[in-house]
Amino acid sequence: MSGLVQVIGRVAARDLRLALRQRGDAVMVVLFFVLTALMFPFAVGPEPNLLARIAAGVIWVTALLAVLLSLERLFLADHEDGSLELLALTPTPLGLVVLGKVLAHWLTTGVPLVAAAPLVAVFYSMDATALPALVLAMALGTASLSLTGAVGAALTLGARRGGVLVPLLVLPLYVPVLIFGVAAGDAALAGLSARPYLMFLAAILLLMLVVAPLAAAAALRQALE
């Protein structure tokens, strides 16, 4: 087990080092999230009760779109420089490589979005008591979004206009995360327990931790043939 964790950690550390050299990509994702979320009050009006009511939905939809922006580069650079093919030829299970890359993607994309979400929520006059449920739901949900997105990125690797195909493939799969994520925030705002929705998000994450690496690894092997 420790050996498997070390493999995942080494792959994640490598991708994190590369991401630090191109930190502008992560900054652009967060900026897109914040700026897109801040556009909605101009469309629906500045009424505080209305903004608080739509806050969870706006935050989740904009976070989902922001994650989509970063999915194409998940495997593309390694594919172009040949390192992905070398990784596929090693004895290391390709699914562990996928997990490591997804972990790095979540740390550079999902975690910044989770950190920025409370700032957007405050702008929307969201009650502070609902913020813990929102943050926890975002943490669970963005991890599932990265795992699901890895499957879409692997399926479209090497395809023409892959950046267009990825959203078409993964958006329908994102719907359950979106539903339960928004429901958790709305329940907390209404003074109800968000625990059932958080448990559903945790169950989706556990399922994707098993299914996504296997599916993405199979798609990568197909793309490399």
Architecture blueprint of SSEs:
Layout: H1 2-21, H2 23-44, H3 48-71, H4 73-81, H5 83-89, H6 94-123, H7 131-155, H8 162-189, H9 195-224
Helix pairs in contact: 1-6, 2-3, 2-6, 3-6, 3-7, 3-8, 6-7, 6-9, 7-8, 7-9, 8-9
| Largest β sheet strand count, sense and barrel closure | none
Report the order of strands and helices.
HHHHHHHHH
Instruction: Output the number of helix runs.
Output: 9
Radius of gyration: 18 Å
The beta-strand count equals 0
User: Poorly predicted ranges (pLDDT <50, ≥5 residues)?
Assistant: none
What share of residues is helical?
over 70%
As a percent range, the share of strand residues is: under 5%
Distance between the termini: 30 Å
* Number of discrete domains: 1
Shape category: elongated
Alpha-beta classification: mainly alpha
**How confident is the prediction overall: mean pLDDT?**
87
3D structure, described in words:
The protein has 225 residues and is mainly alpha-helical. It has one domain (2-224). It has 9 helices and no strands. The protein has helices at residues 2-21, 23-44, 48-71, 73-81, 83-89, 94-123, 131-155, 162-189, 195-224. α2 packs parallel to α6, α3 (48-71) runs antiparallel to α8 (162-189) and α6 (94-123) runs antiparallel to α7. The two termini are 30 Å apart. The model has no long low-confidence stretch (mean pLDDT 87).
